Amino acid sequence: NVEDYEGKFDVALAMHACGNASDYAQAQAIRCGASYVLAPCCVGKLKASGGAKPPGPGRTVALTHPRSEAMRLACSHEEFMALASFADHEAGGCPGGG
Q1: Disulfide engineering: 17 pairs with which of 12, 21, 39, 88, CB 3.0-4.6 Å?
Q2: Rounded distance, CA 30 to CA 3, Å?
Q3: How far apart are CA 12 and CA 68, in angstroms?
Q4: Distances (CA, A) of 62 to 27, 53, 66, 74, 95
Q5: Residue 20: its H or E element
Q6: Model confidence, pTM
Q7: What CA–CA distance (Å, rounded) separates 94 from 35?
Q8: How far is CA 65 from the centre of its chain?
Q9: How much of the chain exceeds pLDDT 70, in percent?
Q10: Angstrom distances, CA of residue 27 to CA of 6, 22, 98
């Protein structure tokens, strides 16, 4: 799992990284000082993390939501998770939607 990886690297590439995988890939790249390109999954499916998950056995980075300070100031964890879940639903009736 990307969140458990403890090695060093210079470049990270995450394509269609589902759920928290794109967040963990970014956090790991930052931990290593690596350049990175991320293409998150088109579906939200974030795991509700009731708060900070500090590094521990097998986990080298902490992950909380919202990730950015701007979003943390704009909405609560619960509101952010509700917004993130919108990507899990079809946009019926919208131009180009299903």
Answers
A1: 21
A2: 13
A3: 20
A4: 8, 5, 13, 21, 39
A5: none
A6: 0.57
A7: 36
A8: 8
A9: 67
A10: 12, 9, 33
d(CA 27, CA 32): 9
What tokens does 11 get? 């470049």
DSSP β-bridge partners for residue 14: 38
Distance CA 77, CA 4 (A): 24
Q: Which long-range CB contacts under 8 A does 63-70 form with residues at least 24 apart?
A: 63/3, 63/20, 63/23, 63/24, 63/27, 65/23, 67/23
Per-residue pLDDT reduced to its tens digit, 4-39: 889 999 999 988 887 788 888 999 999 999 999 987
CA dist 14 and 35 (Å) reads: 12
